[in-house]
């Protein structure tokens, strides 16, 4: 990519450290002690820095103020769900509603690097197939959710879910590490999209991109369940807070209530954007 990338792990997150050990080359060596609010640099190469933080990744607010010279943040993290679903996932952080219980700011989202995120998910799929675990894990985009809020630097979370055995699974850690390293070496330039509607794991987006390999790059995803609390202002924010110029709106036609779909399509029809119903 020709950019400076910070790959960020947390000592408080077992999945984060699992991936970090495999991507940084630290292996099974003891980790440095990193206190809350501290940053430890394990530098490798001129383009990629490996960084350990002492707080939970979702609460690493405004990290761009401490690390302003990067072009991309990649947070390594765990994913938690009551279903204990085995997942390998990635998404952009941010909050669409007036609630922010898991970090970030209400009604604020990070900058979405759509091409990096989409290439990363495709590489996770390929790496999982190479490790022969693709049939055992759900490989999925997640909608934009949780913190931290990073104002100036495009940010992605890549996660292992959804419980302790998965967080510490060495194959899962290796799949994510390999996928990140592959993605860093690539220079994907597909038309950028924002998706609207559907549930948390964005099945229509997964089908369109991961299965049908529709050549677009999706960044922000606004799920159907937040539409009672959002307006045109938030749709504009999703478009403006995407690294690339957004050319396509992916609209999950079954994943939105009619009253939400109607105002959304009316607005999208008034701006210069291609509407693709999925």
Task: Walk me through the structure.
- The chain has 278 residues and is an alpha/beta fold.
- It has one domain: AF0625-like (Aminopeptidase, 3-Layer(aba) Sandwich), CATH 3.40.630.50.
- It is built from eight helices and 13 strands.
Unreliable stretches, pLDDT < 50, 5 or more residues?
none
The neighbouring-strand order within the major sheet is 2-3-1-4-9-5-8
What would you say the CATH architecture is? 3-Layer(aba) Sandwich
Instruction: Calculate Rg over CA atoms.
Output: 18 Å
Query: What value does the average pLDDT take?
Result: 95
CATH class: Alpha Beta
Short note summarizing the structure:
This protein is α/β, with parallel strands linked by helices and 278 residues long. The protein has eight helices and 13 strands. It has one domain: AF0625-like (Aminopeptidase), CATH 3.40.630.50.
Keywords:
4-stranded parallel beta sheet, 8 helices, globular, Aminopeptidase, single chain, 24% strand, 278 residues, 7-stranded mixed beta sheet, alpha/beta
How do the strands and helices of this protein lay out in sequence?
Elements: E1 5-10, H1 14-24, E2 39-43, E3 48-53, H2 63-66, E4 72-80, E5 87-91, E6 94-95, E7 108-109, H3 114-130, E8 138-141, E9 155-162, H4 164-167, H5 170-185, E10 192-196, H6 203-211, E11 217-222, H7 232-240, E12 246-251, H8 258-270, E13 274-277
Parallel strand pairs: 1-3, 1-4, 4-9, 5-8, 10-11, 10-12, 12-13
Antiparallel strand pairs: 2-3, 5-9, 6-7
Helix pairs in contact: 1-5, 3-5
């Amino acid at each position: 990519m020709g950019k400076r990338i910070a790959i960020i792990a947390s000592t408080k997150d077992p999945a984060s450290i699992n991936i970090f050990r495999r991507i940084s080359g630290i292996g099974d060596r003891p980790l440095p002690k990193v206190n809350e609010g501290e940053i430890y640099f394990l530098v490798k190469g001129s383009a990629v820095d490996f960084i350990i933080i002492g707080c939970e990744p979702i609460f690493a607010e405004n990290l761009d103020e401490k690390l302003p010279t990067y072009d991309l943040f990649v947070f390594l993290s765990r994913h938690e769900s009551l279903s204990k679903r085995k997942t390998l996932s990635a998404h952009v952080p941010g909050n669409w509603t007036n609630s922010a219980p898991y970090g970030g700011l209400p009604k604020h989202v990070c900058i979405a690097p759509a091409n990096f995120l989409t290439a990363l998910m495709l590489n996770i799929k390929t790496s999982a197939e190479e490790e022969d675990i693709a049939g055992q894990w759900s490989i999925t985009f997640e909608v934009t959710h949780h913190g931290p809020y990073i104002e100036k630097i495009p940010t992605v979370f890549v996660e292992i879910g959804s419980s302790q055995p998965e967080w510490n699974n060495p194959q899962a850690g290796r799949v994510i590490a390999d996928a990140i390293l592959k993605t860093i070496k690539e220079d994907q330039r597909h038309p950028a999209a924002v998706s609207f509607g559907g549930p948390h794991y964005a099945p229509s987006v997964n089908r369109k991109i991961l299965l049908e390999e529709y050549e677009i790059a999706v960044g922000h995803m606004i799920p159907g369940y937040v539409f009672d609390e959002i307006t045109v202002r938030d749709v504009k924010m999703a478009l403006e807070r995407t690294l690339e110029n957004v050319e396509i709106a992916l609209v999950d036609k079954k994943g939105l209530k009619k009253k939400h779909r109607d105002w959304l399509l009316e607005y999208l029809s008034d701006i210069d954007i291609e509407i693709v119903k999925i």
